[in-house]
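Running this now, will post back.
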Amino acid sequence: MKAITSTNIKELKKLFSGKVRDVYEISPDQWLLVTTDRISAFDVVFNEGIPEKGKVLNRISNKWFSKMTMLPNHLISTSPEKELPFLAGYPGIAERSVIVKKVNRLPVECVVRGHLFGSVFSEYQSKGTAGGVKLPAGLGLAQELPEPIFTPADKAEFGHDENIDHAKFFEVVGEKIGRQIMENSIAIYIKARDIMKGLGIILADTKFEFGLDQDGTLILVDEVLTPDSSRYWDGDTFKIGESPRSYDKQFLRDYLNTLNWDKTPPPPPLPDDIIEKTRDKYVSILHTIEKL
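Update: finished.
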């Protein structure tokens, strides 16, 4: 099974390639968003892809977009081959693509955390905070927080995203829009967290991206609640103080942390068994989410 790590749709103009997605212009107000099988970790894109990853992410994201109706999203069509029949000439592309509304994307990552894990755990150990938010003393690795917290970051298409405090966040997006983003981000997280809890899965954290429509309406864009943008943990085996069994990129991060690699390009090669096990994680959480 071959991974699709690059695309070249000759009938459309490619606008840019991100860490995972390629964006093509259909018209002045519509884009084709193609989710490839590229994978990044520590903000570095690897040379190898994860077969079918893009298709899995696309299906998961579309499922969650359909359930998060508290604000508009960018989706126009989840069956792009109907509007763009020439996609039939590009095997595997239609099933990993959507047609979306062009919006003014805001340059921030909107992270909601329900558990203490990842980069903020080190911050908590040294400062007692997570993303600048003061937390109670005595919390352990992976422990659930008293309530979800919003910890934004600067959006970097390449290189490392950097956590920013709420004051900087409001400076970037404006306080009115910033308040809307915080409120909606936390609301979406809580709804998804409670849904997944019923399926035996812990949604530890997630990140969203937003844009503004031409009339200034806040729009949910990019991807939502995928295993690329979220941490999904197995509820049955979860223990405070341990790195939980996950259904996301954490498996790959844990492997990379065993290597003598400084987390900067070029990335190390990924062994076949790591690629296959990473794919299995993504497919597993897809099967769970498709029960919704």
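The chain has two domains: 13-102, 105-289. More later if anyone needs it.
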